[in-house]
Amino acid sequence: MKKILGLSVIALLISIFLPLNVNATEIFASSKMSMVETTEGGKTFSISNGNGNTMLYLGVNVTEGTFKNYTAHIELENSNFTFSGLSSDYKPTTGWTGTVTKSATGNGIDVDLTNSTGYPAGTRKIVASITLTVADSTPSTDTCKITLGKTEEPENPKCQIVDDTYYDANGNEVSEEAYNQSCTTAENPQTGSFLPYTLIIVGIALAGGLYYITKKNNKMYQV
What we know:
Blueprint: H1 2-17, E1 26-30, E2 45-48, E3 54-61, E4 66-76, E5 81-82, E6 90-92, E7 96-102, E8 108-120, E9 124-134, E10 143-149, E11 160-162, E12 165-167, E13 173-174, H2 176-183, H3 195-222
Antiparallel strand pairs: 1-3, 2-10, 3-9, 4-8, 4-10, 5-9, 6-9, 7-8, 11-12, 12-13
């Protein structure tokens, strides 16, 4: 009986916590336009020496909301590979504007790009390409390890009104009417963000109740 109770409690807690583990929108670096090899999931990779055509690509995988701001720091872990800082050595894709600059310290690249329309959820695309400079004396077999920092876009407030701007349940800027439909209806109240915590409390209470009832029944059987 105790074993069955333990398994029931574990299953209950898993059912509560699993919905909370939602993948967040992630930006990444890639060695190829095809996005086969990337830094997604905290990975790193090494880029090959292409001499005068050593390319690095920046992409995003949008899983929720609308993605509009791409900010990142890329570190090049080989001093033979550098970024010139020239505007001719980076090219944002259509719709993206901003700057890609050489870091003030270290051997890195700072990226700050904006798209006024944004990418909707379900989009996985390249947003910019960067040409790296490789020192002439660098062997053709030499590679450069790529790491990416600051991988998440700052989130907009959800179901809030800030400076007369309305944000829906996904953090998108919307009209007052759309805000009311998203945040003030019975199906999706403003307090929805507290729902997971309510589920956790209810789950713990149910688990405690099951334990109490089982323990009481065991005592009855022993009488």
